[in-house]
Amino acid sequence: MKNWIGAFSVIDFISVGILITAVAMNALRRLESCVKAYTLNSWLLSSLIAIVAFMMGETHLYIASFVTLLSKGILIPMFLRRIVKQIKVTHDVDPYISNALSLTISGILVAVVYTSLKEGIFVAGFSKNVLQISIAVIFIGLFIMITRKKAITQVIGLLFMENGLFLAGFSLTFGMPTVIELGVLFDMLMGVIILGIFTIQIRRAFASADLDKLTILKG
Amino acid sequence: MQYFQFLIIIILSPLIQGTIKKLKANMQGRVGPGIFQPYYDLIRLLKKDMVISNVTSWIFKATPYIVFTSTVAASMIVPVITTESPFDVMGDVIALIYIFALGIFFMALASLDAATAFGGEGSSREMTVAILVEPMMMLSIFTAAISAGSTNISRIAGSGLIFSPSHVLALTAFLVAIIAETGRIPVDNPDTHLELTMIHEGMVLEYSGRYLALMEWAHYMKQMLLFTIAFDIFFPIGIANNVEISGLAMSSGIYILKMLFMAVLMALIESTRAKMRFFQLPSILGGAFVMALLSVLTYIMMGK
Amino acid sequence: MMITILLIPIVTAILCYLLRNHRLIGYVNLGGAVILSIVAVPVIVSAIASPIGHSGMFNGMFYMDALSGYIMAMVIFLGLASSIYSISYLEHELNAGLIDIKGLRRYYALLHLFIFTMLLVTAANNLALMWIAIEATTIVSALLIGLGFTKRKLAIEAAWKYIILCTVGITFALLGIFIAYYASIAIVGTEGALNWTELKGIAAKLNPSTMRLAFIFILVGYGTKAGLAPVHNWLPDAHSQAPSPISAMLSGILLNTAFYGIMRFTSIVEPSTGSVFTGNLLILFGIISIAISSIFILVQENYKRLLAYSSIEHMGIISLGLGIGGPIGIYGALLHILNHALSKPLMFFASGKIQAHYGSTKIENVNGVLSSMPLLGILTFIGALSLSGTPPFNIFISEFAILKAAVDKGMWHVVGLFLFFAVIVFYGILSGFGRMLFGRTQNTEDRAQNTDKESLSSGFWFMASDLIMVLMALLIIILGFRIPDFIDGTIKACINVLGVK
Q1: What confidence category does residue C455 fall into, taking pLDDT thresholds of 50, 70 and 90?
Q2: Is residue A34, in this structure, part of any structural domain at all?
Q3: B163 shares contact with chain A (CB less than 8 Å)
């Protein structure tokens, strides 16, 4: 099994898959698809942790993988789907920049991250590639947050950032102690729930799911 | 034998086109024309007289020959069933892409030359697509070239199968590039002459008779060449690296299977996808471009 | 005992949420805050004397020393003040029909949860636990801001900006913590690698370039939370839209808890990278904050927003003090934290009353506070003088200490910029509040309405809230003349904890 994982460079494939799902967010306009991309991203993240747990024989990573799957892979996507249904908006039309430009910029972002981390200060080994990918995912998440108008897509961008962050932490240190990891995940879950509540309230109060209506407070 | 492997492309390329059409028809529940139909079409066209607009210049008349010969030249440097190619010296991938670009360039010029609305429309669209597709092709080939340490296509094919994320990404991008270059759904619809949507058909609209036959034939050849290159670069399994008869027979068999696979894939894509609006194209091509870019970057980063 | 301190607010919050009678909720809220203060005093005193850890449970994740005790004392004091003030404030809102009993229950429950999360920040030994607590403060306080008693839309907008910006910022902080963890496990292994008690000992051995990167992420992340420019955009909105007692908590202490995180981290990073790197970054952020906020203070038309920008300015000053470093600079910064935690809540409490009285947050709609409400007017005046850095009030002393540190180090450009912007702020705050305080109450119709409102808001709790404000004003004046020995001692102990020589 271990040989098999090594021979087919499964870890590389999964980490690149995480990157691709994040990049694909830039081209997705249907909110359902965005949620799907996020779900896929989380599943890949969780399976990557599980595989590394298997390779290293670390038990606490199995727990981390399972908790990631449960919270990011199942609970949060379910919750996001409910919000998408409740706000009765299906598409994030009319973003600030076009699909093609958005894709290109995210590609450039990845290039910048790769080159700037090439002579990094971090150890080599499998984690080096994963670290670069994770930083790229963080920046793509941030980029999505900047370029999208819908409250819910901003939340998804934030979630991508957090996935990237988890991957980064994981590749640097093979995960934090379990108690801390649980705490961080719990915080994120709460944060997403509250963001979701606000998303619905924005929809109600402003009669729109767009954030460019939120310009009353200035100066 | 190795001197004549390019003939395989010239001769068999209409057959591939016929196979795709037949498969597509079957998938859509039609009987469809036989797989040899493209041959009959070519023969019929070759026999026919030509109608040439009297406002055209020499470019219009020279283009079919340039397109055809450039494609033949391209097929000479691509290893089909053996990597032991006599034209190895000039078998450079970048040269290959520029030979294709030469053909496209003249085609676009010629369609402008006739000064009809559809020709201009077709050529401007083709150029837009080409701008997006060419760098994408380059980048995805680069990934393979860097890992093989050479841009020589025989050398790349001879370096064996490499299974890594960057190659998978590059292959995906390359497949999109093939679809765009061969004018297939969802980029272009090869079966229609609907003014609003046609790209490739718009460019050859003014041609008839022998010229049209040459253009179409070149188009078939280009399609088969691209399939062959895709396999040479990303899946060079079964291609012979010598010129012994037994090896060649084996690799010919595998080559047929590979082409059949591509035909099925193309037919499948064409049957299940809908044509995209032209203005949506940058989105999908941009996506594939980013994939190609990522493949190069990933390769550089991971070193595999 | 430390665990008891953390449990009291949680129990209070649950009780507040379960009860149905609004008077009873008020008493429970007050009772919780008072018990918390009584229980906390011995713990804080002993923590300041010598560090206490709680090693049994949770792998030694909880720990207190002088610095945590100092910040925790402020949290508890302001928690108490806000609890007392909230009773009369919410009574008024309830009578005006702006909230119902459900909103009231939520408010008190969240208020005590908010206090709990901030206590957790100060009691955390593990830096990641501290991160979790800081993120929890964001979540809870976003809900408090989003309660929005008066203007629903504005409250939602403010809360959304707040939670999005702070969560993004704090995500970067977590990345910084991961990087620091990476640097530290290289030296001590995974056991307790993020514990402050461990890190303090090995700080000099950590890889400098890794720590440098970690520090940048932490500074950006916690800096967002602390309201440092240019990532301060959430702050004016959140402070101006939150209910006044919450604004007081946000400004007076929430920003400080985030800054507490930066302080802890700086003291870990400094030994390996040298103080020039961290100092310059902090000074840069500080100067930018002071510059941007001073301009906005000058043109501000809304007094709650003016106070919010003043918070940014003071956070900038604290950052400056920390960045200049040296015993005097740190002393100034720590003292400034305390002074700001007294003056700003006083101003927010006062502005809550002014808002209730005049029904507007525009400076131009408020006139003659001194003549119509003399006590409130005097308190506001004291607060405004203090905030603008006028001698002999408390903030002048700490600003002076920071300036002196800068002069001692020969940072003349910092001194010049600081003085320049301080003058602008001085003018901005005093002219803004001057317009509100002086002058005459407008017309009889207004006055009739006012007397009506005053009768509504009189009573014991109204007096109590006045009393707490008077107490704060007295502290401001006392601190302006002389720093009591126990505060002086505490701050020196804190400097010792931060390892500054």
Answers
A1: very low
A2: yes
A3: yes
Lowest mean pLDDT among A54-68, B36-50, B182-196, C426-440: B182-196
How many CB atoms sit inside 10 A of residue C230's CB?
11
pTM of model > 0.95? no
pLDDT mean across residues, chain C: 87
Residue in chain A lying closest to B300 (CA): A114
Q: Is the pLDDT of residue A6 over 80?
A: no
Q: b/e map of C470-480 (b: 16 or more CB within 10 Å)?
A: eebbebbeebb
C residues 84..143 contacting A (CB < 8 A): 126, 128-129, 131-132, 135-136, 138-139, 142-143
The chains found to touch C (3+ Cβ pairs under 8 angstroms) are A
Task: Give the pLDDT score at C206.
Answer: 87
User: Do A165 and C174 make contact, defined as CB atoms within 8 angstroms?
Assistant: yes
List the structure tokens of B197. Answer: 């949507």
Residue A136 inside a domain? The answer is yes
Element (H, E) at B143: helix B117-148
Listed ranges A209-213, B241-245, C113-117; the one with the highest mean pLDDT? C113-117
CA-closest candidate to residue C127, choices C282, C264, C228, C237 = C264
Write down the residue that tokens 């963890």 correspond to: C181
Asked if the Cβ–Cβ distance from B287 to A132 is below 8 Å, we say: no
In this prediction, residue B278 carries a pLDDT of 78
Closest of C171, C400, C495 to residue A184, by C-alpha: C171
pLDDT-based confidence at C446, cuts 50/70/90?
low
The nearest alpha carbon in chain A to C168 belongs to A158
* Chain C from 301 to 320: CB within 8 A of any A CB: 301, 305
Q: Is B75 in contact with B32 (CB distance < 8 Å)? A: no
Where do the structural domains in chain B lie, given as residue ranges? 2-302
pLDDT at B216 over 70: yes
Average the pLDDT over each of A52-61, B122-131, C27-36, C75-84 and give the range with the smallest value: A52-61
Q: Which of A61, A158, A194, A202 to mutate to test the interface with C (most CBs of C within 10 A)?
A: A194
The verdict on a CB contact (< 8 Å) between B289 and A104 is: yes
Greater pLDDT, C255 or B155: C255
Q: What pLDDT sits at residue C501?
A: 67
- Report the residue of chain A nearest B302, measured CA to CA: A129
Q: Which of A180, A184, A216 is best to mutate for the C interface (most C CBs within 10 A)?
A: A180
Strands of chain B, DSSP E: none
Q: How far is CA C8 from the centre of its chain?
A: 21
C154 — phi, psi (to 5°)? -65, -40
* Partners of residue A98 in chain B, C-beta under 8 Å: 282-283
pLDDT, tens digit (0-9, with 9 covering 90-100), for B153-180: 888 888 777 778 888 899 999 999 999 8
Short-list C202, C159, C501, CA closest to C330: C501
Q: Is residue A58 part of a domain?
A: yes
Residue A45 lies in a domain: yes
| C208: nearest CA partner in chain A | A121
Cβ-based neighbours of C369, under 8 Å, separated by 6 or more: C354, C376, C377, C380, C436, C437
What is the number of domains present in chain A? Answer: 1
For the cut 80, the answer to whether the pLDDT of residue C109 exceeds it is yes
Predicted pLDDT at A101: 84
Spatial distance between the Cα atoms of C207 and B194, rounded to a whole number of angstroms: 67
Under an 8 A CB cutoff, do C178 and A158 touch?
no
Q: Judge C/A contact: 3 or more CB pairs < 8 A.
A: yes
Chain A residues within 8 A of C158 when measuring between CB atoms: 217
Per the structure block, which two tokens stand in for B292? 């190609």
- Min Cα–Cα distance to chain A from C167, Å: 8
Pick from A122, A161, A186: CB nearest C168: A161
A98, A103, A132 member nearest B287 (Cβ): A103
| Confidence at residue C448, expressed as pLDDT on a 0 to 100 scale | 46
